[in-house]
Task: structure prediction
Amino acid sequence: MSMRYITLLRRFLQFNILRELAYRGNFFTQIFQSLLSLGFGLLGLAVIFDHTGALNEWHPAQILALLGIYQLVGGVINLVIQPCMQQLMSDVRQGTLDFTLLKPADAQFLVSTRQMQLWKLCDIVLGLAVVGIALAHLGATVGAGRVLAFAFVLLAGGSIVYSFWLALATCSFWLVRVENILVIFQDLYQAGRWPTSIYPAWLRWTLTFLTPVAVATTIPAQVLIGQLPWPTLLAVTLFALLALALSRRFWLFGLRHYTGASA
Amino acid sequence: MKTLLAVYRAQLKTSFLLYLQYPASSVLWLLGMVLEPVIYLVVWSTIAGTNGGAVEGYRAGDFAAYFLVLLLVNHLTDNWVYYEFQERVRQGLLSPLLLRPIHPIHADIAQNVTYKCMMLVVMLPAVGVLALVFHPTGHVTWLSLLLFFPSLLLAVFIRFLVEWSLGLIAFWTTQMSAVLQVYYVALFFLSGQMGPLALFPVPVQVLAQLLPFQWMLAFPAQLLLGQVDQHALVLGLVAQGIWLCLSLALMKLLWRLGLRRYSGMGA
Result:
């Protein structure tokens, strides 16, 4: 059974590679845009650290690591989560989701993996490079344990972000204009550029629990620079599992609503 | 003139009715508009806190006043038509607009005016709440208030014309997202959206003086808050006047050249 899903994933990947290869010029545009967005972040840091040595006890190299993670996670979101969810919403609106539902595989798996914007890999590569440079500047020896913890918390953060998007996209079974909400996520994600500890409590809570921006960027950065206590790591893991389970239930609930409404 | 007024009345009415279809959208847009200034307000206030209360003379309250006024100016000068231009050109949506005996910019202006007025209904209370949270300080005099409105109006027109011209680039390229991103980066740093331009390195300040961005946002805001001295005031109003003429000329030129291309594409 799981073999079949791996095959499916490979097929989706092949299909998306073929599609992107049809527009090769976009590759250069994407590199340009990735570099521009990184440059945008770096310029911001330059202006800020022209006036201070540390932002709320985060030193330049640490904020640089955060910026790299911001770019990396943003890349993952734009690579697969956002395109899939946008396709899902447009399918719901146009009624073309029927074709997906008829296929003999789990519908959540299909809608969450079939669309990829592969050129967005640029953001991921650049983000990783920036994280590497920041670590070199920190001069800290990062052991294998910490790298593992970092990868794990990134995965957990990614799962929470994915669950959040899936839940929002599922709302399109009832509401027609959900795209607006997605734009809001993009805006909120901007806040992840800076450590969430600088924000006033109400905004920090919003960014942690209402929208998972903090979990996706600040917390992985804290793990990487060795600031995060283990209990928080455990809490993030539980939060991720809960988010995945809840969004799955909500999706199934929404799906029942979809068949009831149109078929 | 009389026809133009009638056209505007009709356009305002339609765009108002269109707007009423999804009134809840304004709350969502509001969130997006408010968040960015709040982020940088918090960042600068944090720095002011660690530097013993002020950054180059700006205290937390000054930052709060700056970013809240900027939020309002940003809303009143804001425009999203450049996002739509790509579709207008690619899908040929422009063709029916061209059949009308009036420049399509008027429909956009009317739609924009409606959007601004309707958004103010949610924007003003939000600014009020933010003022309670962040305690802005500043002294608005009658004179600065009096000068603020013409300067704001100039800013509105400059930004509308600049961004409408920006949208016209869609006649020449399909890679609009890259073009818009460049514009967004330049706008963010050089218009004062990231922070008061006085906090930037001198070369950036000089660049900001030469380009239109500052005159569309930071200048009216700082004028209202009395952060502009007499010399800079005169300079700023002159710069706004020059940019109004330049952006109008640019819009007209690009529109003429672009239309020629558009018709070349089969419309």
Observations:
- Chain B has a mean pLDDT of 87.
- DSSP finds twelve helices and two strands in chain B.
